[in-house]
From TrEMBL:
The keyword Lyase applies. Keywords: Aminotransferase, Decarboxylase, Lyase, Pyridoxal phosphate, Transferase. Gene3D superfamilies: Orn/Lys/Arg decarboxylase, C-terminal domain, Type I PLP-dependent aspartate aminotransferase-like (Major domain). It comes from Romboutsia faecis. This is Aminotransferase class I/II-fold pyridoxal phosphate-dependent enzyme.
Length: 469
């Protein structure tokens, strides 16, 4: 018999699942540790709306205005706005505030799907910078500086450039150099810093996007800091952004009934960041270093060297496992949940909500797994399809075209009518309006068989795909 939502959530709480995934509060442990429990015990009673005293997110003059100003001060922006529709609405508002219909935006190819959705909504034409990939792990490493400069020089009519920094896997690059170059060409810089809200907490971490000169920065506060899922922030600095237009678009795409619970959780996250964040980050980085040092003599466990040290990618090749298998073993046998897996390993997102016991449990599990699965089989090589597909239509043109479903291998060479997105992390291999290649079809079918989830397709079994008629 299937469970209801509340039954499954209660089960996860009762099992005390060990979380190396988002959200950053880690099943609320950080709230208990820092004595926010009394406030949060009343959180359901705080579910209210715009009444006298509660202010209005879309026209703040009181408590919300003051709360956002405090967040701006803590995160060192000129202006900060709370987002209660996740970073998605911040990305879409930033893009549409800067890029009028029929204009052009430059984006890293491994951008989040919300970037392409914004191009559909705003009738904007995306131009892509290819992303670099580690072929031994299929980790997306970000963009090459010279590739970015080349695309900028070829598209000087672009209104903005949007970049993902850091990548989902915690990789970074010289963002400041790109910001400076884009600004020299009168191009505004938006940064999707969804996975970097915590970067300002330690000198051992990469510099923040604001420190490197970005004009608009969107952060998923809930991912790496302790706010509730779907709560995020958008930060602005400098005079290149039409703030009024940005606010107007936020009013259009955000709910007209914003959640006070989500806003309250953002305020709590800001408070924790400001009062305890640096100390907690020092403890976290120390726990991560201890974990990695404990496996220095273990050749079966290999940790990828990420720029953002709070991201841990465990390569499974030497154990003769694929990443999806490691994820399943950790969850079913050790009550540990990772963030995501790809073919070659598993990614763990560590935050200031994790404690030393989490890492002790992980160390025990990895020791036992590496002993049990010591190169039990060889791993077949698979290449990530990293070439940018040919674009025949803009995303918006493709969205409104008539479509038909065909058998998946019959779609090769045709114009895609939907998304092909391995999820997580939600990065599109093929978007509406692009030519479908055999390389991509082979990849998704192979990886789905091994355990990868693929979203964006009407047929989740991947038997058919929609193409433009």
């Amino acid at each position: 018999m299937s469970k209801l939502i509340i039954e499954e959530l209660n089960s996860i709480v009762d099992k005390k699942l060990i979380s190396f995934h988002v959200p950053g509060h880690k099943l609320g442990k950080i709230y208990d540790k820092l004595n926010y429990k009394n406030t949060l015990n009343k959180i359901y009673s705080m579910d209210t709306t715009e009444i006298p005293g509660t202010d209005n997110l879309h026209s703040p003059e009181g408590i919300i205005k003051e709360s956002q100003e405090r967040a701006s001060e803590v995160f060192k922006s000129d202006k900060t706005y709370y987002l209660i529709n996740g970073s998605t609405c911040g990305i879409q508002a930033a893009i549409m505030a800067l890029c009028p219909p029929k204009s052009k935006i430059i984006a890293n190819r491994d951008c989040h799907q919300s970037v392409i959705n914004a191009c559909i909504l705003g009738d904007i034409d995306p131009v892509y910078i290819n992303s670099e990939i580690d072929k031994n792990t299929n980790i997306l490493k970000g963009i090459n500086i010279y590739d970015a400069i080349k695309v900028i020089d070829s598209n000087l009519d672009a209104k903005a450039i949007i970049l993902t920094y850091p990548t989902y896997y915690g990789m970074t690059y010289d963002l400041k150099r790109i910001c400076d170059y884009a600004h020299s060409k009168d191009i505004v810089v938006i940064v999707d810093e969804a996975h970097g809200a915590h970067l300002g907490l330690s000198e051992e971490l990469p510099k923040t996007a604001l420190e490197q000169g970005a004009d608009i920065v969107i952060q998923s506060t809930h991912k790496t800091l302790p706010s509730f899922t779907q709560s995020s922030m958008i930060h602005i600095q400098g005079d290149r952004v039409n703030e009024g237009r940005l606010v107007s678009i936020l009013k259009i795409i955000e709910s007209s009934s914003p959640s006070y619970i989500l806003m309250a959780s953002l305020e709590i996250a800001v408070d924790i960041y400001n009062k305890y964040g640096t100390k907690l980050m020092d403890e976290l980085l120390n726990n991560i270093n201890k974990l990695k040092n404990s496996f220095k003599e273990n050749n079966n466990i290999e940790f990828y060297d990420t720029n953002d040290k709070t991201k841990i990618f465990i390569s499974t090749i030497n154990m003769g496992l694929i990443g999806y298998e490691l994820e399943t073993i950790l969850r079913e046998e050790y009550n540990i949940q990772v963030e995501l897996s790809n073919y070659y390993g598993s990614l763990l997102i560590c935050t200031i909500g994790n404690d030393s016991n989490d890492f002790k449990s992980l160390e025990t599990a990895l020791n036992e797994i590496s002993e049990k699965y010591r190169a039990n089989k060889s791993i077949e090589k698979i290449e990530y399809p990293n070439n940018i597909p040919v674009k025949k239509l803009t995303p918006r043109e493709a969205f409104y075209k008539n479509k038909k479903s065909v058998k998946i291998y019959e779609s090769i060479g045709k114009i895609c009518g939907e998304y092909i997105i391995p999820y997580p992390p939600g990065i599109s291999l093929t978007s509406p309006g692009e030519i479908i290649t055999k390389e991509i079809i082979d990849y998704i079918l192979f990886c789905k068989e091994k355990g990868m989830n693929v979203s964006g397709l009407k047929d989740s079994n991947l038997g058919q795909i929609q193409i433009i008629e």
